[in-house]
Design a protein that fits this description.
Layout: H1 2-19, H2 23-35, H3 37-59, H4 62-68, H5 70-92, H6 100-106, H7 112-124, H8 127-140, H9 147-173, H10 175-181, H11 185-204
Helix pairs in contact: 1-9, 2-3, 2-7, 2-9, 2-11, 3-7, 3-8, 3-9, 4-5, 4-8, 5-11
């Protein structure tokens, strides 16, 4: 029963955090809207793998070292902030597409590795993710918690993020939806760009103890 209660806690907290718009959402949205469903899904896969890596090193204690080290935290947050701001600036240059047919070839689709890297690096370079996993797991994981159970907790968060962002990519990429938002897609991309820049700036001033 203790395991089930703790797992439900992980599930509930992770769900709330994941569905709340943030860098991962913005990156997946941009890949899906600007490129394709495939690009969005591979970005989502990158996010899921990134969360798996976060969960793994936090469970073995490396995350605590990063969180307590001003040097490591500062380096990570500046690199992550720069990456988000760079992607945001690229989005600000979005051009209007006047027809669905033109949109199909107006922007070159991302390769699977490129889309995957966007999600992976966007997630890994966010120190807030480290702090989230540390905050969550320090409340749930006890000295006697079996390694297999810890792995289930980490996998749960990673799986939830992958499923949610894959659903976002699929929904945004549907032909009917894309057709409806096509006329304002350049504005949506620019808004996403502004969001990425603001998220990057917010990340840049993040404090390690928050």
């Amino acid at each position: 029963m203790a395991f089930l209660s703790d797992w439900l806690t992980v599930f509930a907290v992770a769900t709330v955090v994941i569905v709340t718009p943030g860098p991962d959402f913005a990156l997946t949205l941009r890949s899906s809207l600007v490129h394709s469903k495939r690009a969005g899904i591979y970005t989502a896969i990158g996010v899921g793998v990134g969360n798996t890596i976060h969960a793994t090193y936090c469970l073995i204690g490396i995350g605590a070292v990063i969180a307590q080290s001003i040097v490591f935290f500062s380096l990570l947050k500046w690199v992550g902030a720069g990456y988000l701001i760079y992607l945001g600036i690229k989005s600000l240059n979005a051009k209007k597409v006047t027809s669905y047919a033109r949109s199909e070839g107006a922007v070159k689709d991302l390769t699977r590795p490129a889309a995957f890297r966007i999600g992976l690096f966007g997630n890994l370079l966010n120190p807030k993710a480290t702090l989230f996993f540390l905050a969550l797991f320090t409340q749930i994981v006890r000295p006697g918690t079996p390694l297999a159970v810890q792995a289930v907790y980490g996998f749960t968060v990673a799986a939830l993020s992958l499923i949610w962002f894959a659903l976002v990519a699929t929904a945004i990429s549907k032909r009917s939806i894309r057709t409806r938002i096509l006329s304002v897609s350049h504005w949506l991309e620019r808004i996403t760009g502004v969001a990425l820049i603001l998220l990057g700036l917010r990340l840049a001033v993040a404090e390690a103890d928050r």
